[in-house]
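Case study 2.
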Amino acid sequence: MSAGTSGAKVLQEAPRVVISVGKKKTAVARAVLRPGIGRVRINGYPLELWPIEMARVKMSEPLVLAGDLAKKVDIDVNVSGGGYMGQATAVRIAIARGLVAFFQSQELKELYEKYDSYMLKGDPRRTEPKKPGIKHARSKRQKAYR
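Prediction:
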């Protein structure tokens, strides 16, 4: 082995931190990934104790797909804004992006894209703004023909 190769190997094994961001509607999640034993905390709470089961399942999808790789990192996520499912989706995107960046794995990226393409790229849809003179974005007064 050459000296350059061993130096690169040491750099890869050095403890490092990856920060990733996920967004859904108005919810923003920031995930910090560090080498560890597989702890996942969302706003300080362990993922297993998250009260809403559907949201908990959605947030754990990238971890389940990653398998044993997820047990090599500790993930701390801060999420704010939006509702509980928007927050769950934002956390899911942040965790998936963070795992791909942390392990620099093309296989993991392809797995996520095959499972759900929105897991890495996010969902561009936003709520349409309300217009003046009407109650909602597209509501109109009822039309009478007689």
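The CA atoms of residues 12 and 103 lie 10 Å apart.
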